[in-house]
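Researcher: I'm preparing a figure for a lab meeting and need a structural model of a single chain. I don't have an experimental structure, so a prediction will have to do for now. The sequence is pasted below. Please return the structure as tokens so I can convert it later.
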Amino acid sequence: MGRIRENLKIKGRDCWTLFDSGARNSYVVQRATDGLSVVQLEEPRSFALGGKAHSITASCLVQARVEGHAVEFHANVTDEIGKDEDGKPIEMLFGAIAMQQWGIKLDLPNEKLDLTHLAHDFVEF
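Model: Understood. Here is the structure written out token by token.
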């Protein structure tokens, strides 16, 4: 498991993102969802993040750019994710499912993303 911090571009604006292979799902804070397709859930769900219990009442489709490459993924909308090691508020948590879907890996020794296997086309059987 590992974590890398980087800006993701959403609708032309930077979104401080934690790429976290230890988190299964992806999350986005409410204030970063302007212009995204957000849907209200029929039933709220709960999850624990950063030692706190949270409630999810909405979900969205995030269309973003990772180092200039277009990606889209599902994220749960929450009020707060937490702060990084430097005290900067995290706006998006890019989880393991989305990283696997797009072939994004973490280069922990160099503290950067490994996009050598980034999916550009999908072949389904």
